[in-house]
């Protein structure tokens, strides 16, 4: 993902009083588990702009969300563009934006909402994750 985006993790219980509104999930075969992952309208719009800027094809490529070992709290989120899904990926589509999640990461991301926040102090994606029991101060690591 480009350098202009930051990532913050928020446990589901600590979410703001106005929860993000997810866009409707396509009921197509490209969505193996419609309730597995949500992306807000704000995040979809920002992903679409970034995909155009990076030259990622919306019909072949998409946003890859993942989890890696490391960070202050034990696990870190990974967010980047990919030119195509991998063989065992779960593929979600939100208003024409495809999101790829590998099977190992899905265990940690199931039920998560990806939001985008833009304020005077910060801009970036927020992972609102019911599977996160705590996150570090920087917000990009969780357990």
UniProtKB/TrEMBL annotation:
Organism: Telmatobacter sp. DSM 110680
Database matches in SUPFAM superfamilies: HesB-like domain
Protein name in UniProt: Iron-sulfur cluster assembly accessory protein
Gene3D superfamilies, per database record: HesB-like domain
Region feature Disordered, mapped onto this chain: 1-31
Organism classification: Bacteria, Pseudomonadati, Acidobacteriota, Terriglobia, Terriglobales
GO biological process terms on file: iron-sulfur cluster assembly
UniProt xrefs under NCBIfam families: iron-sulfur cluster assembly accessory protein
Domain of life of the organism encoding this protein: Bacteria
Biased composition (Low complexity): 11-31
InterPro entries according to UniProt: ATAP (IPR016092), ATAP_core_dom (IPR000361), FeS_cluster_insertion_CS (IPR017870), HesB-like_dom_sf (IPR035903)
Example of a GO MF term: iron ion binding
Domain named Core: residues: 37-139
